[in-house]
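Annex B, item 7. Sequence and structure tokens for protein A, then protein B.
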Amino acid sequence: MSPLITSLFSLEGKTAIVLGATGGLGQAMTTALAEAGANIVSVELPSDSQSEALRSNVEKAGRTHMVFHSNVGDAKSLRGAFAQIWEKGVVPDILLNCAGIQRRGKVEEITDKDLDDVLNVNLKASFIAAQEFGKELLRLNRPGKIINIASIISFIGNVDISPYAASKGGVLQFTKAFSNEWSGKGINVNCICPGYIRTPLTQQYSSDPKYKGYNEYIIGRTPIGRWGEPQDLVGAVIYLASRASDFVTGTSIVCDGGLLAK
């Protein structure tokens, strides 16, 4: 591989701040960022059971791993975590917003708590993290990359997931809005829209006989003919975090095995 191509995709010496780094999608993408050269700053719950697994992955890649604790669904807590990050002297380059939750139910059954929980984590936390990250870049007069995780549900509504659909539609739209204001200042803002990915949260739908019909529906709807795996998002996140995407902003990369095209 030529030195030019290698350098375009290298994250050597960069620092990535990640929300949701310990989750099913987050572990794969954050580990990939570390393997590409980035040091990792993880914003996570104090009792996160996957924290040490993430640390092990990052340190195996030869990168540093810092943890700051926050309930990301609480705006005050999240802004406080970013204040601590800056107080520690972290100089940011990349933000990956992949914290997310789901609440299922028919529209008429969704409670205020369901709606608040999903919007606070999936939409508001991503908005606040991008805002705090961008403000620090502007203060330092530095370029940077913001990568939000939206969904194919940003484009299609599906059923029984109305709060999630609202949140992911919002992520897609604020990505565009932030890019309009910041791309001229060297801050690229993009998002990745995964399709149906096999993670601990979705494992039951692809393996439990109870959901055989749902599993068959997903595979039949996806032209590639399978569920996605977290590793299927690695190429997109490295591209959007690296110099290779310097002229890409305000848009999304759909990683769905062709589902939206069908």
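Protein B:
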Amino acid sequence: MCSAYSASRFSIAPMLDWTDRHCRYFLRQLSRHTLLYTEMVTTGAIIHGKGDYLAYNEEEHPVALQLGGSDPAALAQCAKLAEQRGYDEVNLNVGCPSDRVQNGRFGACLMGEAQLVADCVKAMRDVVSIPVTVKTRIGIDDQDSYEFLCDFVQTVSQQGGCDMFIIHARKAWLSGLSPKENREIPPLDYPRVWQLKRDFPHLTMSINGGVKTLAEAKQHLEHMDGVMVGREAYQNPGLLASVDREIFGDTAGSPSPADVVRAMYPYIERELSQGAYLGHITRHMLGLFQSVPGARQWRRYLSENAHKPGADIQVLETALSKVARVD
């Protein structure tokens, strides 16, 4: 298993309602080295919720848990549980701009409370030995000067002991824009993030936001320690098939899309036997054959049939038959 720090050279962003354990297991079939992040999980859900919000599959490593919260004691309790469960990293969400998150006093609004973020990180670092990292923006609302960003990083790194940051290269508007609009409307400012790394060379920094190709990722890696990709990797997961070779220098062969589908069969059969629905797993696989003849038929067949009662591996085999032979 590679360490979370080496794996952070290329990672998949935490995406609410998307990067669940089924998604992460699927993405792991495409890349052995990419660091995978959970959806954001609130401290309240972990401490008071009835479900197991820390569940994951051993095959997902390296895998990081993203926490949402602002109470140092609760975050420390959850970080300790995460380490006991075997997570490779704990990440604090200081980037999500949704109203629901703000009402809970976590996410991007915490950029305005650097000392509190430092206290949260320190509380977690005091009780775990795995990396504690922060994912943030380049600013919030009218607090978007470079000086503001530097002050935030300096406070959180010096007072909290955080030595690894993931920087989304857009600022967040805390009111007036939806989370979706906050991913698209505030302009990307890659040079600002590159400058931040130059000004804090002793810190490990990854860049996030708008990266769509491995060529773009490589350009960022000339300036940064790591690159985090979000929606492009979800909508076009085949992108990951070349990551081990292109980004990590692994000379092992890349899996074909059909190989990846069939590699999922034992996992799917196990999950179905435990009461899971096929559609909950295959919804993450719809974009696998992007640009391959028959990709639309693959998506349509899965979308129309995976949710039906009793749907099983045969649905995937039939869907595969509609795609041009690529293995």
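Comment on protein B: The mean pLDDT is 94.
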